[in-house]
Amino acid sequence: MFAITKGLALRVATVATALVVGPATLAPGTAEAPSPGRAALAGDGATAAQKFGWGIMQWDFAWEFGESLDSPPYRGLDTTTGYWQEYTDGTGRAVKYGGGVEFQSGDQLYKKAGPDNGTSMLTLRDQGAVRGRWEIRERADQSESNATRYRFIIELIPDDLTSDPCKQSITIAEVSPGDNSLKIGATADGAKWTKTFADGYPQDNDNYAFALQITKRRITWFADGRAIASLADVDARPTVPMTLRMRLVGDGAKEMNKSIVKVDWVRNYDLTRGDVPPEGADLKQGTNRC
């Protein structure tokens, strides 16, 4: 009994030390330091927070110290509220893995075995905001190529989940494992703005940091620390608190390519400081028909 108790105490002490030392070395409001000698090219994971000197970090979900999907953020000004709500309607799931969250399309133990279909989703609860800055680092890959590609969508939707996200939402990034394109956009009741980058974002297990900034005057999209597009149309800017949703989207029961998307961290910053980014590319306006 003594040996078991002693071992348990040692493990508890080790975890407690990690919880104290880890967040202290990455204080609230500080961004992760860039890797030496790496240029800010697509796929290298440079961040907008680094490039533009963003404000105080409000929260950071990084899952580095044993947190579950139900755990609040591990650092930032607000570490008491927020959790992730999971949903799936097919073979996939969203699970915590070492140092992040992993969207799995199906059984990953045997790469060619088992079906892959449906949609897996994580929605952030209790952290809604009308304006601010959000940044997410992801990497995606597929181990099959004979079926249909999944889509992975990072977006803001109304924090009130009874509202229709079709009437108001912002796509921070839409990519597909095995593809090179990036789609962004916004929807409002009756209007839709979109932009597609046909190449330059290969989803073959490379890191990408996608970000969004919403101020009183403009929405700006970022990829790997670069402002890639902006939108000043007042109708596109949210009027209600918005929350993050991440989805690995299939096509109902249709068989899809076996895929994995890993999210290393999800962060939020306020607007108290930071350089003004360039406006970036314009989005094309159309009609919202959903």
Q: What report would you give on this structure?
A:
By secondary structure, the chain is mainly β. It has one domain: Jelly Rolls, CATH 2.60.120. Helix content is 10%, strand content 37%. It contains two helices and 16 strands. The strands form two sheets. Strands 1, 3, 4, 6, 11, 12, 13 and 15 form an eight-stranded antiparallel sheet that branches. A hairpin with a 2-residue loop joins strand 3 and strand 4. The radius of gyration is 19 Å and the shape is globular. The N terminus is likely disordered.
Query: Low-confidence segments, ≥5 residues, pLDDT <50?
Result: 1-43
> How much helicity do the residues have?
10-25%
Question: Would you tell me the overall average pLDDT?
Answer: 85
Main sheet characteristics? 8 strands, antiparallel
Task: Count up the domains.
Answer: 1
CATH topology: Jelly Rolls
- The number of E-state strands comes to 16
Percentage of β-strand residues: 35-45%
**Rg, Cα atoms, Å:** 19 Å
Distance between the termini: 63 Å
- Order of helix and strand elements from N to C terminus: HHEEEEEEEEEEEEEEEE
The structure class reads mainly beta
What's the total helix number? Answer: 2
Name of the level-1 CATH class = Mainly Beta
Quick structural summary:
The protein has helices at residues 2-25, 48-52; strands at residues 57-61, 83-88, 93-97, 100-104, 120-125, 132-142, 151-158, 169-175, 182-188, 191-197, 208-214, 219-223, 226-231, 242-249, 259-269, 284-287.
Question: Characteristics of this structure?
Answer:
Beta-glucanase-like; 2 helices; eight-stranded antiparallel sheet; 290 residues; signal; ConA-like_dom_sf; mainly beta; globular; single chain; Jelly Rolls; disordered N terminus
